[in-house]
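User: Before I run my own analysis I want an independent prediction to cross-check against. Here's the chain; please return only the structure tokens and, at the end, one sentence I can use as a sanity check.
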Amino acid sequence: MTGQLLITRPEHDYATRYLSAWAGKTFEIAKAKGYSIIDLRCERASRKEVESILNKRKPGFVVINGHGSDDSVAGQEDEPLLIAGDNSSLLEGKITYAISCRSARGLGKEVGQYTNTTYIGYKEDFILVYLEKYRIRPLEDKLAGFFLEPSNLVITTLLKGHPTEEAVSRAKREFLRKIQGLLTSETSVDAYSTLRYLVWDMRNLVLCGQENKKLF
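Assistant: Structure tokens:
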């Protein structure tokens, strides 16, 4: 099959660098499934670029990595990319996943009302815990992996052709598996302290709009 994945990967602070690095781990599956990846990294994660791609190339799958608010998701240097009441209609007919704080509250709710459209995101802050010593080597940070492996599962589940509701369910189950693993094994103080944040992210991952929408 052939499809297009638009992904934004700002890298202007440690949090966005982590999101960017771990998002790159999904590219292998995307390519294996025949997807053309439109990778808006660093300065390309701008409103101008996002609007241009959505208007001209019309990708069916949009992944946003970055900071957010109730009504928007941001790109490089926290520039708002997609905003409720402004340009959210560009996401109509698509599946969007935002790894971003609180955007499901307003933006996601609005996007989810469009026909044949799904928005997956977080209704509260997306919390990511990482270790300072890995700040320039994010993929080696196993603590961050507790948060970003479940998050990536949303993306890879959708790329494999499963419906949106299943993608969210699998991610929540993976969060739960991480939590149970920490509770039932000997873990470091750093890992054990992340438990409440894993529970937080699991509970606040939500789906707005069509629950059975698939990429193919």
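Sanity check: The CA atoms of residues 49 and 139 lie 27 Å apart.
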